[in-house]
Design goal:
This protein is α+β, with helices and mostly antiparallel strands and 784 residues long. Helix content is 53%, strand content 14%. α4 (194-210) runs parallel beside α22 and α20 packs parallel to α27. Bound molecules: adenosine-5'-diphosphate (ADP) and magnesium ion (MG).
């Protein structure tokens, strides 16, 4: 058992160039790191005074603006991951206002490989450690849950083409009679290696992004919980260790009053504030000594994290702080919350359980062994049923016994429960049907009836006596059986009580109830590869619209801010590929060298053996040349290992970069969808005006002529294509403007619009051009 308080860290987000930094100082002393925030006093009252109010907060450690992601992982997440690997539960949660860097810390930035956050780094670390430990068998699963307005959604659902959060499967909480929490509908997917786990994380993040619309900035208003479940077992042992690690990205902690929102957003904000409020209540209750009731049930989040906040868990909190002047008061309230959390004391215990299936196997084996032993002692093989021959023998014995008038006579069938039971049944039949079964017994002279009755009484007494004897025998025999049964039933109750096992991936309640919820990783992969799509475009919008839409998208993606990042990443990826290729060649080279050296050694050995045969007097002595060759091989092996580990690292980086690119491309696609659908909603009457507008633009006929249907193909082209070509660039008719800005602008005056003749299609084209101009003008880039 490990007893300690919740570790609370602070991370300060870099202050933006245009932001005014608030006044704070960090003292990262060995024992008492503290963060001091200073704010002008009475500023709100309108009169100026020079007094300052300062607040000092203590943390386990404070990471200032320049702290990098690898340092955060090493200091905060690695110790928790180590505990989880040894069988304890762990939780890391990020708390802070929107924009303070919670997602950046937990998941990572979407641009650079070095920006990857705690989740991908933890997965990498855990799988690395599991691979190194061959003494145990490990199973790893992951789940990804989003809680929005008190509803849970399964982010790892690969079957849904979710374009709204409501399309994702709803996760509900069920509580059993022992007050254990079960999450119904939450997918637990097995990941056998880092790559599979990262793919699942990517799938979840993509679902999270797609489900978010500008109207519903779910990421700042929802809580996301990524959970890694690890179970381990030593070969041959019935004990399994199950542990889980929750990585929690909480909703923004900002207060409602400050944000000044209303209506639907206010409802959301109330929900969030309420759930964070309940989280705080739970935390206060946990920090209080002698408090028996902890109000976990008030919100979904506290229910889910029930066994991971207080009690049996290694819990860590990261308070993310934005230290620019505007946000300093929110940062102070985040720090206050952190101080309360730091008071909670947790006792983490190992989650060990006995696997009932393995126990049954062990007990069966024991029974087999005992039977063999019995057969050895009695010299007879014991079957479960009595043979026909044995039954006849028993009938005879019973008849003889009943006929025998000697009160001392006994019925001896040996210490065999089956025979004893049979005798009882048989006697019962005789007593119940004296006229049929016991004809011979009762066909005596009626005058002797009295005597007979006496004998019957005696017999009954005898029977009673035998009964007692048999009972003693039965008790003795049952004793051993009971022991085994006891163990088994104890096992079942422990199993039923166990929270850990129920939430353990291999034993999940849901699993047994609805196996169809568990799909293979293959399916997940198929899904993630099918993600590049424009769902609303492919949805029955008609071919013409799709064609125009595709063209519009081509232009849109060029203008999108992320296209620069995509380009950069593409370059980086290419560079990494080249590096990987180089390393691959190097590896081959080293391998060839080793083989060559090995060949040399063999040659040398053959030569020396031949020499020994032709000249037997000469003794085979230590060969310096061979030793030299061996040393060279060792050196080469070392260098092979070195290069190989670089190669492996590079592979992970390349995979990560590819996922990042996918994510960015998806984002562009989504932004486009939102923009396009907004354009589609604009009133029709604007359109005729545009034909006479001086800002009319050239429209390329291929908009309409192109027969290529907008489908996932065109977007996978977008994904693959590195040239990123714009039809506008080709025609030179629509693209000009600042060549360095990467923003392309519509021409200010244009000759003609080669329209299609289809009035609806033409109107759509013009609406698109008009809208695009509006945007550019808003950005200050459009033509005047
Ligand atoms: P939150 O999840 O708390 O709302 P985000 O993690 O989305 O905030 O961060 C907001 C923005 O600030 C993102 O663009 C993110 O990349 C950036 N950011 C946050 N923390 C850091 C950091 N430590 N270093 C660099 N950029 C950061
Ligand atoms: Mg966020």
């Amino acid at each position: 058992m490990v007893k300690e308080t919740i570790r609370v860290y602070a991370r300060v987000k870099p202050v933006g160039r245009r932001q005014q930094a608030g006044s704070y100082s960090v003292e990262n002393e060995e024992h008492l790191p503290s963060l001091e925030i200073t704010v002008p006093r009475d500023l709100a009252d309108g009169f100026i005074n020079n007094k300052q109010e300062s607040y000092k907060f203590k943390f386990e450690k404070i990471f200032d603006q320049e702290a990098k992601q690898d340092v955060i992982f090493d200091s905060i997440a690695k110790p928790v991951a180590e505990c989880v690997l040894s069988g304890y539960n762990g939780t890391i949660f990020a708390y802070g206002q929107t924009g303070s860097g919670k997602t950046f810390t937990i998941t990572g930035g979407a641009e650079r490989y070095s920006d990857r956050g705690i989740i991908p780094r933890t997965l990498s670390y855990i799988f690395d450690q599991l691979q190194k430990d061959s003494s145990k068998m490990y199973t790893t699963h992951v789940s990804y849950l989003e809680i929005y307005n008190e509803c849970g959604y399964d982010l790892l659902d690969p079957r849904h083409e979710a374009s709204r959060m409501e399309d994702l499967p709803k996760v509900t909480i069920m509580e059993d009679s022992d007050q254990n929490i079960h999450l119904k509908n939450l997918s637990l997917l097995q990941a056998t290696n880092e790559e599979e786990a990262l793919n699942l994380l990517f799938l979840g993040d993509t679902n999270r992004m797609i489900a978010e619309t500008p109207m519903n900035q779910a990421s700042s208003r929802s809580h996301c919980i990524f959970t890694i479940y690890i179970s381990s077992k030593e070969p041959g042992s019935a004990t399994i260790r199950c542990s889980k690690l929750h990585l929690v990205d909480l909703a923004g902690s900002e207060r409602v009053a400050k944000t000044g929102i209303g209506g639907r957003l206010l409802t959301e904000a109330k929900y969030i504030n309420l759930s964070l409020h309940y989280l705080e209540q739970v935390i206060i209750a946990l920090a209080e000594k002698n408090r028996s009731h902890i109000p976990y049930r008030n919100s979904m989040m506290t229910s889910v994290l029930r066994d991971s906040l207080g009690g049996n868990c290694m819990t860590t909190m990261i308070a993310t702080l934005a230290m620019d002047k505007r946000n300093i008061d929110e940062s102070i309230s985040t720090c206050r919350f952190a101080q309360r959390v730091a008071l909670i004391r947790n006792e983490a215990v190992l989650n060990e359980e006995i696997d009932p299936r393995l126990m049954i196997v062990q007990l069966k084996k024991e029974i087999r062994d005992l039977k063999d032993e019995l057969a050895l002692v009695t010299g007879k093989q014991r079957m479960s049923e009595l043979s026909q021959e044995e039954l006849l023998q028993l009938d005879e014995l019973i008849q003889t016994f009943l006929k025998d008038r000697d009160p001392d006579s006994s019925l001896d069938v040996g210490a065999d429960m089956r025979k004893i039971k049979y005798c009882f049944v048989h006697m019962k039949q005789i007593i119940n049907h004296p006229m049929t079964s016991g004809k011979k017994l009762f066909s005596q002279d009626i005058s002797e009836e009295k005597k007979h009755n006496e004998e019957l009484g005696k017999l009954k007494g005898l029977l009673q006596q035998r009964d007692n004897e048999i009972n003693i025998l039965v008790t003795m025999l049952e004793k051993e059986k009971k022991k085994a049964r006891g163990a088994l039933s104890q096992l079942n109750t422990t199993y039923a009580d166990s929270t850990v096992l129920k939430q353990c991936p291999s034993m999940n309640l849901e699993e047994s109830q609805s196996p169809s919820r568990y799909f293979s990783l293959e399916e997940a992969k198929v899904f993630s590869s099918s993600i590049p799509r424009l769902p609303f475009l492919s949805r029955a919008t008609g071919e013409k619209l799709s064609l125009r839409c595709q063209e519009a998208f081509e232009v849109f993606k060029q203008d999108h801010a992320d296209s620069i990042t995509i380009e950069d990443n593409k370059q980086l990826l290419k560079q990494r590929f080249d590096e990987a290729k180089c390393l691959g060649e190097k590896l081959n080279e080293v391998r060839n060298k080793i083989n060559h050296l090995k060949g040399k050694i063999i040659q040398r050995q053959i030569q020396r053996a031949a020499l020994a045969v032709s000249n037997p007097s000469e003794e085979l002595t230590f060969d310096l040349v061979e030793e030299n060759l061996r040393m060279q091989i060792e050196e080469e092996k070392k260098s092979y290992k070195r290069v190989y580990s670089c190669f492996k690292g590079l592979k992970v980086e390349i995979e990560h970069l590819q996922l990042l690119m996918e994510k960015l491309k998806m984002k562009v696609q989504k932004d486009f969808e939102v923009w396009w659908s907004e354009e589609a909603k604009k009133p029709q009457q604007e359109k005729p005006e545009m034909i006479t507008s001086p800002n009319t633009a050239t429209v390329y006929p291929q908009f309409i002529r192109s027969s290529q249907h907008l489908s996932s193909n065109s977007f996978s082209d977008f994904n693959k294509d590195s040239s990123y070509e714009d039809p506008a660039v080709k025609t030179n008719s629509i693209t000009f403007g600042n060549p360095t800005s990467k923003i392309r602008i519509l021409p200010s005056s244009s000759t003609s619009i080669p329209l299609t003749g289809d009035s609806q299609a033409d109107a759509d084209i013009l609406a698109f051009i008009k809208a695009r101009q509006n945007i550019l003008q808003k950005k200050g880039l459009g033509n005047k």
